Amino acid sequence: LLAVVLDPDNKFHTYNASRQQEAYLPGPNGVGLQSTLWGNMDEVYAVSPTEPRNPRGWLVDLLNRFGQFGGFDNLLERFNTGMALLKKPPSSEDMSSGGTTSSLSDDSAKMKTSTVSSSGTNSTSTSLVLEDTNKITLPLIHALVRPFGQCYELLTIPTIEKYFMPIWSVVLELLEGLTDDELKKEAKPEGRSDSINGIVRAARCLASRLPNQENLIKDLEMFRLKMILRLLQVSSFNGKMNALNEINKVLSTVAYYPHRNQGPHLQQDDEMDWLTAEKMAKWIKDTDVLGIVLKDSLHQPQYVEKLEKILRFLIKEKSLTLEDLNAMWRAQAGKHEAIVKNLHDLLAKLAWDFNAEQLDYLFDCFQASMTTANKKQRERLLELIRRLAEDDKNGVM
């Protein structure tokens, strides 16, 4: 719900984007905010962007009201309490019962309310305290940081520094400690929310507002790629498709802005600033992404379509090697007819972008296979060669 309310692109905030702040006015001498309706406050949590056409005043007022009610303080307290429980070593009672307080795999965290007296007065404050058997979960972390990742441009730098920057190292440490089983549970079918990438994306957006955060942004991007790779290695079909989608999102971004990290005028993109096409090509090669993808699920046409985008990227970056072609050819040798058909279709599409050396190697593969293939395999090879010949009307190949 908070993500909907604080989404700058929802219908309400889009319609009212041109409105100025109405609930709060700058305080005396520009310090804090004052309001005849809601009272004064010393801390400013959000301000309108410098772009005058869309001040988003109503959303800024909403964020400041959220802070005035202690929303940001409760957010940080919730993180601190949850992280403390996750880092707390299990007691002997927990060990004997087989329970653990450091797992992220539970679906929810139960909370209880405690009343704390303040300096002997009658005033009380309500704080959220996790029970010993509960912990902070990945969906919960995502739900807490996502709303503010959406409206990061409106939050003041002191707000980001105080309430969000202290939590990233701990959150990344917890994500790093996910077991393979926990990671599989986070793998969502296409079109559904992805907590891990959502957390990293929100962290990156918030960190980008602060100066001298290049190392953190780099760490976030590399961590995201590391989690995508793990998901690709351990997941079922849905998880692998999700991982391939994430890889292709990154590839489309770095391919669309190939020079955004060069020169004084940098292109600021929602997804990546630090990664370049060259670095992504190197990452794909160093982590053997192709080798992992070619191991299974090649009978699924939609899976091979995702693979095609990666291969086209490597061809464009001149990073597709003969070893990669050999791996593709071996992936279909002697396999089920559906796999052979999908990979032959893929090679027929890609052949037009191969250089002379790659084409020669592909034809060598054809020739070598002809000597050992059975009748049905020869028919498939001849069909592939016929398709290439028919498409090559000008004799380019």
UniProtKB/TrEMBL annotation:
UniProt-listed InterPro entries: ARM_UBP34_24_USP9X_Y
Keyword Protease part of the UniProt annotation: yes
Keyword annotations: Hydrolase, Protease, Ubl conjugation pathway
Highest taxon of source: Eukaryota
Family annotation (Pfam families): ARM_UBP24_USP9X-Y
Protein name per UniProt: Putative ubiquitin carboxyl-terminal hydrolase faf
Segments for region (Disordered): 87-126
GO terms of biological process kind: proteolysis
Coiled-coil portions: none
MF terms in GO: peptidase activity
Residue spans of biased composition, Low complexity class: 96-106, 113-126
Every UBP34/UBP24/USP9X/USP9Y-like ARM repeat region domain range: 218-397
